[in-house]
């Protein structure tokens, strides 16, 4: 594991970081050929898809082992993509590997694992609160051997250029709330499926993998064999996907924190307020650096412990810890990024460093996969129930 991390660190520093500035300032499509060259290098080095099993071309790392890798890859916005470990593909790979049929795996999982295609996951709807994931209007009704899908989704990350989406749609409207929806594979070129637009995020529309799409499904017809798992299992599968996914996200966020921390320290030493007096002499800056170091280190231990609990007990048994890391690490990320931007001053608002990119795109960390407030309340209710609180 030590050798693997060293090899990944070397590749990130020597091959990825020199391309980072172009990623921050140019459309994804323009940079994609160069990114693909680096992806090919990753394959040749035997570092490809470290989270996937060997039969799919990966390294077969455990969740805890991959957590360390994810933190390294998170130190640059292109890290996960170069190693084919980027969301939403990483979650879709895990879902198809665990629950896909042999036909689905051959058609979709294998090329996805090879990096030949990309995918997306369509769940959130603009008309309904994302904090209530079972509340959705998209439907998939049975007609013979097909599903006919109608619905409106948005913040479908990386839809632009994806080969397929996994859509959450209601297949049993009269069932219990958590048993109404199913997950269905839909090719992005299916008649009736429209990529309406890439949604501007704080002014950045993005493109290709680095984008968030709005989708409309109008009479989209796919075979019933495109359903993943049993009918009505969509929510259960989504929850299973989210447990390890939150570990992935949190360690990626901590990688961002580490890079932001390093940039902050380097600038505090280099930037002078007056001749011979660097910014790092200021007590406020010193406090930000100390607080950031403590928060990053503590958050890392919490996430790694959660990963170990998921492996030992399963995601459901570790659900409180999964919620804790989600809101806690998202808060650490926001605070560290904000301090780093502040230390950089006007420079921090530009794309001469990755700080502004992360500040725009990672503010959503406290919103997606359930807003912080929902996770805090859910954990607190379960804790207080153990102390005798009957209603909350």
Question: Care to give the gist of this entry?
Answer:
The chain is of the alpha+beta class and 392 residues long. It has helices spanning 2-25, 28-44, 63-73, 79-82, 89-99, 102-114, 234-270, 283-313, 319-344, 355-361, 372-385; strands at residues 119-122, 139-143, 146-157, 164-170, 181-187, 193-198, 206-207, 210-223, 227-228, 272-274, 277-278. The longest helix is centred in the middle third of the chain and has 37 residues, at 234-270.
Helix-strand blueprint:
Layout: H1 2-25, H2 28-44, H3 63-73, H4 79-82, H5 89-99, H6 102-114, E1 119-122, E2 139-143, E3 146-157, E4 164-170, E5 181-187, E6 193-198, E7 206-207, E8 210-223, E9 227-228, H7 234-270, E10 272-274, E11 277-278, H8 283-313, H9 319-344, H10 355-361, H11 372-385
Parallel strand pairs: 1-4
Antiparallel strand pairs: 2-3, 3-8, 4-5, 5-9, 6-8, 7-8, 10-11
Q: What's the CATH C level of the largest domain?
A: Mainly Alpha
Q: CATH homologous superfamily name of the largest domain?
A: Butyryl-CoA Dehydrogenase, subunit A, domain 3
Individual helix count:
11
Q: Low-confidence stretches at least 5 residues in length (pLDDT < 50)? A: none
Structural class: alpha+beta
Domain count: the total is: 3
Q: What percent strand?
A: 15-25%
